[in-house]
């Protein structure tokens, strides 16, 4: 892709002024029109050091409404970012519907700086390209426009620009070594960058490589391409409204997952309390060693209403160090969360290295309550199976731990617990009209649960079904599962 780029293209100043003049106001108009249609926009500007990234971004933002965009100038990660997967910091920066995010350097530069190293760097590149394509496809499927530029200059041109900067006191500060030393290793990076560009040039997120030797041509080309792509998206949105493309909603294959409510054994209260105390001590030890080894762990609780998720979580964290874990209760998304991709709010709560995050309900709401109650379109929840599997697999492959519990109870047992709560003044607050409505849709939810477990129980992130008609057994099984998985992570 780079070798085919003409680096000699240029235009004179008069031509530039004449052709750029109508593009300035047009960009502002398109920004407002797509804002009104709630289309998120992501602009990526990448390129060699000294290729003009700052110049291009500065030109773009002059004619945008500052209330509708955020500029992210991406450099070396801070401590919080370094403790999480690479794409986490970009997922959390994706724009809300109708807004625009400009990235002056992005996940591409950071992937090169942080992941291309060691003897296994080629497989790291392939893994990184796969993760990036997944990330971009998911946010594109959710309605985002992704426009990517790479500013290409020759090694000689780069050397010339650095020499000029060194002589100019006003620009000498711009020469930084950083953690991706472009100007010292141009020839080494050239084939790697070519591989990244070729591997991530997709229909939903194509690259525009610009020969950036001459500034007027570079700026005009960026404006022209950006406006052309935004106009195309505006025409599509005007034609279809908010209808999404029915692209890539293949469901993952099914895996057989047995659901049983009645446990294979029962405990007396004395047996339970003795086993509970021992298991809680072991969980505390597991937490300590995960912290020391800087391994993050997520524990997901899903299950029927009144299946015992709250009591189960209370026993799990009883002996844990409270500074080392978070419990995230998940309910209906607020407006800010609803304005983003549905996974956005969960990425924001991913644990840093050595920390444990427990989700009381999770991203699986997309294929359960949102599916049954009609809170999302059919193609959206069908697409979610694959998106969730990709997210979980990537998280585990990058060193994180993930335990997923489904708490199964029988319909009769649920009714007994509902009535007991309703008749207990200390527990009646747990009951809502929504609980009874959901119970009335037991058959629909039962079918959705079956499909969820079958399509998202993977080798990287299998489901553990907890037989929860007996609360003692359910709590002990959850604790022992976490202990066994923790030992596996620490090997």
Keywords:
491 residues; alpha/beta; Rossmann fold; 5-stranded parallel β-sheet
Give the gist of this structure.
This protein has 491 residues and is of the alpha/beta class. Helices cover 50% and strands 12% of the residues. The strands form two sheets. Strands 2-3-1-4-5 form a five-stranded parallel β-sheet, with helices on both faces. A five-stranded parallel β-sheet has the order 7-8-6-9-10, with helices on both faces.
What would your notes on this structure say?
- The chain has 20 helices and ten strands.
- With 491 residues, it is α/β, with parallel strands linked by helices.
- The strands form two sheets. A five-stranded parallel beta sheet has the order 2-3-1-4-5, with helices on both faces.
- The longest helix has 26 residues, at 215-240.
Which SSEs are present, and which pair or pack?
Blueprint: H1 13-20, H2 23-36, E1 41-47, H3 53-61, E2 69-73, H4 79-82, H5 88-91, E3 100-104, H6 107-115, H7 121-141, E4 145-152, H8 155-167, H9 186-199, E5 207-211, H10 215-240, H11 269-293, E6 297-303, H12 309-317, E7 325-329, H13 335-338, H14 344-347, E8 356-360, H15 369-373, H16 378-397, E9 401-408, H17 411-422, H18 433-440, H19 442-456, E10 463-467, H20 471-490
Helix pairs in contact: 1-10, 2-10, 3-10, 6-7, 7-9, 11-20, 12-20
